[in-house]
Write a structure and sequence with these properties.
The protein has six helices and no strands. The chain has 219 residues and is mainly α. It has two domains: 47 residues; 168 residues, Up-down Bundle (Ferritin). α2 runs antiparallel to α5 and α5 runs antiparallel to α6. The longest helix is centred in the N-terminal third of the chain and has 45 residues. About 16% of the residues have low confidence.
Length: 219
């Protein structure tokens, strides 16, 4: 091989190294410039919400909390094994959903309770719309399906089949209220995450209502 051929090969190799280096540098720079933008877009999307989303979550947290309290009571006091199993499933489903909704509020920079939230117990709520369905998001004072303190105390004083029947009747009404609230969220909400949760609530609780209605005929 003559000196001219060697020189040509060396020049070609050096050119290839330079091209590869520029390509890698350009690719890295492009990745560096697009990654923060993508992250910012994702964060903005997760934080996007409107007043309906906030009202839904702020209302559903105490709504779910009461359902969990009722389910805990049933898991201990129900006499029917199927009622106990249902109560356990309600606890397992709604407990994590409460934490998920608290996460929504933290991401959105919203408080857990609204400025119009009830003070003290839930016993002062207006129950005139219970079981009738609502076309607008219920206010904290009148959330559809919520039980009064008196109803909760009455449930706690029962046992055996009487407890099972009242628990099922109350939880059916409670679930119907949650479905009303979730349908309003689907109609008026903006957050994809909150709307997805609302649809899961509708699907799960409609199935549980059918199950509880069947159980009522046997207890």
């Amino acid at each position: 091989m003559n000196h001219k051929s060697v020189l040509i090969m060396l020049v070609a190799a050096a050119t290839a190294v330079l091209v590869a280096g520029c390509s890698d540098s350009t690719g890295s720079a492009a990745a560096a410039s697009t990654t923060p933008s993508a992250a910012a877009t994702s964060a903005a999307a997760s934080a996007a919400h409107n007043a309906a989303d906030t009202a839904f979550v702020q209302g559903m947290i105490p709504h779910h909390t009461q359902a969990v309290q009722m389910a805990e009571m049933a898991a201990q006091r129900a006499s029917n094994g199927q009622v106990k199993q249902l109560a356990t499933r309600i606890q397992q489903a709604q407990g994590p959903e409460i934490e998920q909704m608290r996460g929504f509020l933290a991401t959105w920079g919203e408080p857990e309770t609204s400025s119009t939230a009830m003070s003290g117990s839930m016993g002062g709520m207006d129950h005139s719309t219970m079981g009738k369905g609502t076309s607008t998001m219920p206010t904290p004072q009148g959330m559809s399906g919520m039980m009064t303190d008196q109803q909760m105390q009455q449930l706690g004083q029962l046992s055996g089949a009487d407890f099972d029947r009242m628990f099922l009747q109350m939880m059916i009404e409670h679930h119907n209220g949650a479905i009303d609230m979730s349908r309003t969220e689907l109609a008026n909400g903006q957050s994809p995450d909150a709307k997805a949760l609302a649809q899961r609530i509708i699907d799960a609780q409609q199935a549980e209502i059918a199950e509880m209605q069947s159980l009522l005929a046997t207890v």
